[in-house]
Amino acid sequence: QVLLVESGGSVVQAGGSLRLSCVASGGINSLAIEGWYRQSPGKEREWVGNISPGGATNYADAVRGRFTASRDNAMGTVFLQMNSLQPEDTATYYCMARLGTRTYWGQGTQVTVSS
Predict the structure, then answer these.
(1) Which of 20, 76, 29, 27 is closest to 49 using CA atoms?
(2) What whole-number distance in Å separates Cα of residue 78 and Cα of residue 30?
(3) What is the pLDDT of residues 44-62, one digit of tens each?
């Protein structure tokens, strides 16, 4: 059974930083993890950024320049470094993996940014 687990969410003040982690298990390795998304109450889930197996990244306009995705293949972990956090970044953050035509999601980790 494929399992994605996100961690690292917390409550921070505006201007602060957090690093989220995503680990995959159950027949899928971390190279299949390809994206970060977030969802705020009452809003649709939105794309935050992608990372290719080779480490190439792309980001949504709202986070570009502040968020950085990276991989540590030895650890089997994908990270999302979030700097200069703002209250509008408050959301549940999810990582997504793709294997063939199927996508997998973690349970999410909550990020709350206070003003």
Answers:
(1) 20
(2) 7
(3) 999 999 999 999 999 999 9
